[in-house]
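Dear Dr. V.,

Thank you for agreeing to look over these. As mentioned in my earlier message, I'm a first-year student in the group and I'm still getting used to reading structure tokens, so any feedback on how I've presented them would be very welcome. I ran two proteins. I've put each sequence directly above its structure. The first is here:
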Amino acid sequence: MVKAKPKKSSVSAIRVAELAGVSRSAVSRTFTDGASVSPATRTKVLAAAEKLGYHVNHLARGLIHHRSGIVCLIVAEMQAPFQANVVETTTRKLQAIGKVVMVLNTAGQPENVEAALRQTLNYRAEATVVVSGAPPLSLIETCIENGQRVILINRDDAITGPEFVLVENENAAREACLLLHRAGCRNLAVVSSTAGTSSIMAREQSFVAAAAELGLTAQVSRAGPTGYATGAEGARQLLGASNRPDGVFCVTDLLALGFMDVARQEFRLAIPDDLCVVGFDDIPEAGWLAYNLTTFRQPIGAIADHIASIIEKDEPEPAPPKRLPTQVAWRKSVRP
């Protein structure tokens, strides 16, 4: 019978102090930024720590000061290019300011978002950034009452307590309509999804409203969840009808890629000669030569910077939602 190996205990600061011949407080000061410690003492402590393999327990230290240093990101559809870009940029920024980032994948189910938010309370997270999904208001309030900061991305709910970071969806959608109108498109459509998120709905509704201001009617397609397949099905529905559109705004780039592939492969339409298409997000694939999609770039770097600035503040004051502008990424899917 194989005996289980005894579990090794972690090296304590007391053992480091004994080996270095200094006090326990001297060890603590050595590993505390800005603390006063003599060069000779620092050298002895670091040498002892290196020999013993000592590492500071930042979690325990943070909990003593009621700051765990943990920031949770709640994300759905992590395989989607835009979501992946948000996670990559935000985690890199938060790690640069010394935070430990936990990514909780909710797989898009509302009950999963609620479970993930409860999990952040269990881990005493310092802050939670909700990238995807809509947690219940009561649970958000519970998190705030427990001293946790909640930051909602691209959500414009009429609730107090959380911090909001949004992009100017409405302005971008109106500009998309004007770009298509300038290109000579008069039969417009918007390819949306059944997701029903505030950002998706803002783009869809603003585009339809902008078309109405120009005296035009925009068809709306919502063939399924926000993804490539839904864009492809939207193309079949819109382009297969008798009143085929000549200008289309897709509320995400992933929808646009599916739409463009079906338009060219199944309906033999030339883009932008026969059909103009505008997207939203500016995912890396939008710039591929196969698509050259004109789209609106979300300021992911600025979003991550603002999230970090909120978390770094000891006592952030209530602030209005932070609204960031998008930028047109002009390519070749719209006639100039």
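The second protein is here, in the same arrangement:
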Amino acid sequence: MRQLTFAILRMLSDGNYHSGTTLGQALKVSRSSISNTLRDLESYGLTIHKIPGRGYRWLNPVQWLDSEQIHQHLAEYADSIQIEIVEAVESTNSLLLQRAVEQGISANRIKQVLVTELQTQGRGRRGRSWSSGLGDSLTFSVLWPSQCPVNTLSGLSLAVGVAIVRALTSLGIRDIALKWPNDVLSGSHAKLAGVLIELHGDMLSLGTVVIGVGLNLRLSGVTKARIDQKVTDITSITGQMPDRNQLLAVLLKELARVLDTFERHGFEPFVEEWTRYHAYQDKMVQVSFADDSVRDGVAIGVAADGALLVDTSTGVVQLRSGEISLRDLAEHSSPFN
């Protein structure tokens, strides 16, 4: 999406009609440029209504991210979190990680946040894509100046999940669950949010840690059609679109608290809380490995390092991120295969 497109959309955000001539004069471009730019925006989940003689009207405008509002909501955390808002980017995680590798990590303890209105090539765990439209989600990444060696970061994605649940429940959003190792689900097991942790550095040294979060707020039909799994959003759960700036600030504050604890004590302080929200706790699950083999058992919790504990026919096994996928086995009749 071009810069001109964003400039036009910001003018249309008031929900009123604006003629092509008025838009062109304000932006110093021709009417035909306005018309061409607004063509085919439905692919982004946007609905632009055009009436000859009246102009263009955006029927489903987004709430734009605003750094000043976000900082107001951050309150006492405003000085320790640096926020950059970009209109469009392929992947917030990729860009932030690239910057960190090229420029190095600042000596200060400030957490750098990159948040975008539109992410065009979002990524999930195990190479999967993450789909979102303009303003229908919160997609952001945090560069964490961690003092933890890379090999002590097991369980970090689970801890971030706890932060997301805390943030949502503090705003009155209930019926939320966690799926190991990096998903947030609704009570109906539809995906609401995801976490992607990316590291750069040696296992025994302090490394670069980038935490990516995608949270669905109000997905358009176009966006949902691109997703190959059951998904939901905040609006579907609560009946209303949340304030994006307030929600981002609440998420960042909870994440800051969780990261401070994790840096001192690892994942262990979060085990009980994570288990309480575990979507598959004490349920039959099937674990799929990279070599296409599978293993069935009962999910009985997580270990102090974030490993999933599964009670199988041969005993309890510990499974770690990057090796398995998890799905409900409610339709299976045999407890062990």
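From my reading of the second output: The chain is about 30% helix and 30% strand. The first helix runs from residue 3 to 12. Does that match how you would interpret it?

Kind regards,
E.
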